[in-house]
């Protein structure tokens, strides 16, 4: 076992090349070849039925992405893609150019490499941009012609933006931000935009309004999986998610000039709107069933995008992200992998020794609730240090309630292993500490009073063997390496169809 966080791997040949898809359509063809896409050509109502089918299909972790091709009330020829990534680590891998057969721990390691590369976007000519197949302006635009889903019975309306990306610019630096913020359809050219406090889209908007100017917005409702995933990751206020997306893909994101606003638009998107947010122009927005499995905030007045231009490809594919409890939530495997990669980056930057792996389990409210960190204990107090640093490192601090440290023989991505450690190495009266008044969100319903909700709490659980008694701690029952290897070599001959399990820890005499 390594003594330090497994170092970021050098860029291997397979990682150095660009992803082998160019847009959402090519990526869908790729996942279809891999048996990970299901087309639904039966008539489906976007009003609750599309979400019901998605929820029911995704009660299984291995549910395919769902492409709804025949939607009631559609006047545009559009289809809707749901469960684009969801609980599938295979679809995540195929989106970022990694091997879909890699284990979760390997995907986290490889993700650290590709998520630390930066490639700036490239400009393509308007005439060459597929999103410009159809371009409409002002009162030619009618967004109600598209099959816009209403997800949950208690939702406040139809949401055109869930699987979206939203671009804004910082007025002083010009930095382009990409966020994923929910967008409710109010009318043919009116789209509500909800950004929660502190989000870059909201800070950009406030900065424009402070100057007395409207805030320009570009939003795409049919977008490739990498831009969608990056839109939901938190990067520094000065960093552009577009550069990170380019780095992950190994090629620049292609942008083209807009019609009415000074922001660029993603050239290969399926459908893009351009518009402005005027200070004081608000309409009642929400609620929406959230990733927590509950309805989020109450209905409240929120700014509205006044749509000035619409661009789309013929028969556009709209991306819709169902928010629900795992494994039905769109924020699933990809989010757990990316968040875990960033937690390991943070811990490496801090310089704490002995950390080997981390995993933000997707079933814990989309990777927000629980972080397991594995480590090799090297000194008294080491586990307590790793727990405290993990709990409050930037990538893990938001929301996370349960931080669990396990030894190097426990795989943090395997919850059975983690439960074993919790049940055999943790002595609750000794090994649990609580942090109070920590960073959280009003979307966590565990505190009933809404005003108290933003303040969270965290439990640090030491599920490592007690450091004081490491020498006396009973040995685990492990196979002898020679016997394992002998049996593994005969595995098929013994009649087993699947490959033998990989074991990393063996008996020591
Ligand atoms: C499907 C989905 C829906 C989201 N909805 C919202 C939302 O309505 N409002 C919000 O502030 N953040 C929402 N988020 C989270 C943000 O995308 C995330 O915090 C991201 O970091 C925002 O970008 P920023 O850091 O550049 O502000 C959503 C994320 C996903 C994946
Ligand atoms: Mn940002």
List the topology elements.
Elements: H1 13-16, H2 24-33, E1 37-40, H3 49-57, E2 65-68, E3 79-82, H4 89-96, H5 104-114, E4 122-123, E5 134-137, E6 159-161, E7 165-169, E8 176-179, E9 183-187, E10 190-193, H6 200-210, E11 215-222, H7 225-231, H8 241-249, E12 254-257, E13 264-266, E14 271-285, E15 300-312, E16 317-319, H9 333-350, E17 355-360, E18 370-375, H10 382-392, H11 394-397, E19 402-407, H12 415-424, H13 428-431, E20 432-439, E21 455-462, H14 481-489
Manganese (II) ion is lined by residues 177, 179, 200, 235, 241.
Count of helices? Answer: 14
Q: What is the C-alpha radius of gyration, as a whole number of Å?
A: 24 Å
Helix share of residues?
10-25%
Q: How would a textbook summarize the main sheet?
A: 9 strands, antiparallel
- For the termini, the CA-CA separation is 18 Å
Oligomer kind:
single chain
Shape: globular
Give the amount of beta strand, in percent: 15-25%
Return the average pLDDT rounded to an integer: 95
* Structural class by sheet pairing and helices: alpha+beta
Give the strand tally. 21
Q: Which spans of ≥5 residues are poorly predicted at pLDDT below 50?
A: 1-16
Small molecules (ligands, ions, cofactors) in the structure = flavin mononucleotide, manganese (II) ion
